[in-house]
Design goal:
This protein has 112 residues and is α+β, with helices and mostly antiparallel strands. The protein is built from six helices and three strands. The termini are far apart.
Length: 112
């Protein structure tokens, strides 16, 4: 088992990921364990592609990642990812109420 501090993780994440490919990596914050890094391939999941797709869908639905980023995570094209999200009835355009109100105000000004 490897240990890496948050500071080390921030300064050189690729080293921690390389370690995670070999073994579990414990991430510490002020010398206290806070997180665990595990390479997904090491988990022995029967269908890693579906796990990656589920993670991408979840992060997109939360508004954490863009459609393009989610597609790359899932190993899909943007078009394929859009089809997957649409089939799951997840809107491709996510707007806050403030965004919608601002767009409607803009549309009303131009409609005059």
């Amino acid at each position: 088992m490897q240990t890496v501090s948050v500071r080390e993780l921030k300064s050189n994440p690729s080293v921690a990921l390389r370690h995670a490919a070999q073994d579990i990596v414990i991430v510490t914050n002020r010398d206290e364990p806070q997180a665990v890094l595990v390479d997904l391939a090491r988990l022995g999941l029967p269908d890693l592609d579906n796990v990656k797709q589920a993670l991408a869908v979840s992060l997109f639905k939360q508004g954490t990642v863009s459609l393009g980023y989610a597609a790359r995570m899932a190993g899909k094209t943007k078009s394929e990812m859009a089809t997957i999200l649409s089939a799951m009835q997840i809107p491709l355009v996510q707007m806050t109420d403030e965004d919608l109100e601002r767009d409607l105000d803009t549309a009303r000004r131009f409609a005059l």
